Amino acid sequence: xxxxxxxxSELWVALLLxxxxxxVLWDASRIASDVSQRGAVGPKAVPVLVGGLxxxxxxxxxxxxxxxxxxxxxxxxxIDLSHRSDWRTVLLLSGAFLVNAALLDWAGWVISGTVLFxxxxxxxxxxxxxxxxxxxxxxxxxxxxxxxVGLGIGLPAGVLTGIL
Length: 164
Fold this sequence. Notes:
Layout: H1 3-29, H2 45-66, H3 87-107, H4 109-123, H5 129-150
């Protein structure tokens, strides 16, 4: 791609980030903030942070491009573009996620999360089934405890209601 066209496309990316950041900030300004909220951080905090970071990134990218900097194609990439897509892994990961979503209300987070974590490890190539199952259960129980006890956010317990 000619340098002039590459520079123009990078400026378009910076402009897109700037517009996206401005939209996020504008939308965050419209969030109703109740003074009786729980905790020091209100509902505007994360959107304002994300919008502000998008604007900062856009300004820094635009400045870098205008100073003559540019991205380099495929330098430092760990991806071999000559290999075909691994659709088996994509489908297995998608399946683990969909089974998690289907089981969540009935079985609860601990069981559905265990399926998600174990299924993801399997899809990504691990064949230590028992070890992965133990790790998946520990992760599911730990995340359940973190959300319900630590953050006060109730995750569904499902069939384990009364046990957890």
